[in-house]
Design goal:
homodimer; alpha/beta; TIM Barrel; 2 domains; 15 helices; 16 strands; globular
Chain lengths: 390, 390
């Protein structure tokens, strides 16, 4: 762990909000911060250079997608993820578990997020205590992912921050299943750590994942297990309930039991309010595909708007010469009007997606910078009122 | 014409190749040079800032597309094309004629380029001496484009270099039709000039278009007409035959009769060999959608390759750690391997299109810069051997 460290600079008195710095061999991440998703070794529509111009500190890539295409061995041969995709800052990879289980249960995320069972084609073949067998969504080939295999793949990918394999327990199962699943994730955590240490050369550190579904006692047990192992960081995962309020409650079950001297990541969360609430519950980093996904569909993130966004396709922008957000310093807001962006989306021009992606990434990084400043100034609740409406 | 001028710096002794500078209120264009197509007020996939990083001097936008979407009045209201799309360099607009007639005859360009009649839905309703009636490809509304209307629209768009309306004569018609069509283009030329002068404030200058199909005598008549009118520049248009060799021959019919003290543009041509041959026949500028269109389909322009390009989807690039062109200084070649680009296209990642577009635009600008240097050094034919294979 030579190139890694974690420092806490300041703790809020009103909540669990804190200012920290995660140091990796590829650079530092001041937290609270946001991790952008480059699922298939690419942020959709933006280059690493553009991500840096948008003040991005860290990106992630998905083990599940990369093991299927182009394959971890190819990426290793090309010098690892950093070199392959041209990103020289800190990187995070997940374990592959989330996609295997959420796709296996019928959809990428709706089930984990409590939206119920879907009728999508299922790709998960079998879960045993050894690991999970699943079919590739690309060509139907059968793959097997064990804790050891996930870590071996993440080692080949070479991200700074890696994650243990867990079973990502769905929402619809009962407490008994959730408890058993959590116990299996603990065993998989032990095996993930063992595989990490087997070839640890100091270039990667591992996060454990808290499971336990929506049950306070299970969340506590899972947190205590994670705290006892020598993980570098803690990720809060699994089912977080079926509403925003339920999510905040489930995260709050974990907060008191999270090891304080480790960074905490909240998996898959990106709404403005969710981030404020998460920060107050002690979360240091967040990730979500939403900034670039929303951009590709014509949504621009904007502080103080319902659902955090405006739809640039709306006809009210047709003759609007002002930028998305006149207080925003991004390349898009500094150079282009709503009328132009509206035209690009109506005309199906690729540039529209790129410009809104730049704005949305910049806006997330601006949000996180303003949150860090507000923690320092002890006025997080005042800032929150600017950013979201309930 | 206050802000405009045209200077010839050097003339080759071996051919009609020359070095010139076209000065516009928005900047200078050293020629030979290439004009990139931003059809709907956007270079597909690249921002004006990226175009500049690729050393681009001038871009064009299409009157036909813009009159239909978002409409010339809206662009005028937004301050004109330059401001609307954030490009502050020289701009060119066409008259709308090419698209109306080529779409009207069944396809965008195959007919003009001699590939024969197509079965595409026809949008041209009627051509009279007054102008052309056609239906919008977007919503079926009927539009009428006259010489006066084309110039009024181009005035609202506000490009530096504008073009007379002409009838873009198809390849399959006989000499008699071609002659009559050319005569009508002459009348439309007179009317275009009259409308330009009616409200000329010195911010735009006009190119006349040489027609006459594949007939030497008609090309000569058309050139002489253009030379007698006070156009700023000359564009060589219409049917240029059904093969590369035929095209060079048809352009050679025009060369001796082109007014020497005006810039000459060859419409719709972008192949490496075509540009070398065009330069030797006295062409100063060229335009084609190919650099960005090829990029979107996974083709990277590369000197010395058959058809000027390589297909990055080809499996031979799967594990190729080298850049597209190790002699290229573009952002793509400086940062990404063929293996990564191959992966992006196989995985359907948007970034692939952006990176290849950067490479292709940069490569066209590099080609033109090398051609300018070679004219100066009197070794154009030696350079040509590097760039294309027959």
């Amino acid at each position: 762990m030579s190139g890694f460290s974690f420092e806490i600079h300041y703790k809020s008195e009103d909540s669990r909000a804190r200012l920290t710095t995660i140091t990796t061999p590829h650079g530092k991440i001041d937290t609270p911060n946001f991790i952008f998703c480059g699922t298939k070794a690419s942020i959709k529509g933006l280059s690493p250079a553009q991500m840096k111009e948008c003040n991005t500190s860290i990106i992630l890539s998905n083990t599940y997608h990369l093991m299927l295409q182009p394959g971890a061995d190819l990426i290793a041969k090309m010098g690892g993820l950093h070199k392959f995709m041209g990103w020289d800052g800190p990187m995070f990879t997940d374990s592959g578990g989330y996609q295997i289980f959420s796709l296996g249960h019928g959809s990428v995320s709706s089930e984990i997020k409590g939206a119920g069972l879907q009728n999508r084609k299922q790709s998960l073949v079998k879960i045993t205590k050894d690991g999970a067998e699943f079919k590739s969504y690309i060509d139907g080939r059968t793959f097997f992912l064990s804790p050891e295999e996930s870590i071996k793949i993440q080692r080949k990918l070479g991200a700074d921050l890696i994650v243990q394999l867990d079973e990502c327990t769905p929402f619809h199962v009962n407490k008994d299943y959730t408890a058993k699943s959590m116990e299996m994730s603990k065993i998989w955590g032990d095996r993930s750590i063992a595989e990490w240490h087997r070839k640890d050369n100091g270039s990667q550190v591992m996060y454990g994942i808290v499971q336990g579904g929506v049950y306070p006692d299970l969340r506590k047990i899972s947190c205590n297990y994670i705290a006892e192992q020598d993980f570098f960081g803690t990720a809060v995962g699994g089912s977080l309930g079926d509403s925003k309020e339920h999510m905040y409650e489930v995260v709050s079950y974990c907060s008191p039991y999270l090891p304080e001297n480790r960074p905490v990541h909240l998996l898959g969360i990106g709404g403005f309010r969710d981030i404020f609430e998460g920060v107050k519950l002690g979360m240091d980093t967040f990730d979500c595909v939403s900034p670039t996904r929303l951009a590709r569909h014509g949504w621009a993130l904007k502080k103080g708007e319902p659902k955090d966004r405006v739809n640039i396709r709306n006809s009210k922008y047709k003759e609007d010469g002002s930028p998305i957000d006149s207080s925003c310093n991004c390349h898009c807001c500094q150079n282009y009007s709503n009328a132009y962006l509206h035209h690009l989306f109506k005309a199906g021009e690729l540039l529209g997606m790129q410009l809104l992606s730049i704005h949305n990434v910049f806006t997330m990084n601006r949000l996180m910078a303003e949150i860090r400043q507000a923690i320092k100034d002890d006025n997080l609740n005042i800032l929150a009122k600017d950013w979201y409406v309930i």
